[in-house]
Design goal:
Length: 145
């Protein structure tokens, strides 16, 4: 279903987890879109894409962390939609057109010597935008055996 914000006139899909608030301006003046607004929304979203990438760094400094597995899920306890692994630059991209809605991203496999305790990040992806999320990993001392 398509919705319209009475305050800023932003058109968007899916009210999941928004408490009746506009994802653009945050106001709670949201209503179902009229037929005309739905047609406008469909026309504006024919060729748009929304993508998501993650950047992983250490908490001790700006050094990127390669080899981190990051998952994108449909809900807090939802199904994993995509996973990606960070490269030498600490970046990963989910590399697929994603539906415009709320996702949850989390580090599911930090590399040896690192720990992640930050939990999930809730993100809203909008058509036509690239969203970047950042995770910070804590370096862990390697146990001596």
């Amino acid at each position: 279903m398509i919705y319209c914000c009475e305050h800023c006139h932003y058109l968007f899909e899916d009210m999941d987890g928004r408490d009746n608030r506009c994802p653009d301006c945050g106001k709670s003046a949201v209503r179902p879109a009229t037929e005309t607004e739905q047609a406008e929304y469909a026309q504006d979203h024919l060729y748009t894409e929304c993508t998501c990438s993650a950047h992983v760094k250490t908490t001790q400094g700006p050094a990127p962390v390669p080899g981190v597995v990051v998952a994108l899920k449909t809900g807090e306890n939802g199904e994993t939609v995509l996973t990606a692994v960070t490269g030498r630059d600490g970046f990963c991209s989910f590399g697929k057109r994603l539906d415009s809605k709320t996702y949850y991203a989390e580090v599911v496999e930090p590399p040896v010597g690192f720990a992640y305790t930050g939990g999930q990040q809730r993100i809203f992806l909008r058509d036509g935008y690239t969203t970047q999320i950042s995770f910070f990993l804590e370096e862990q001392p390697t146990p001596v055996t």
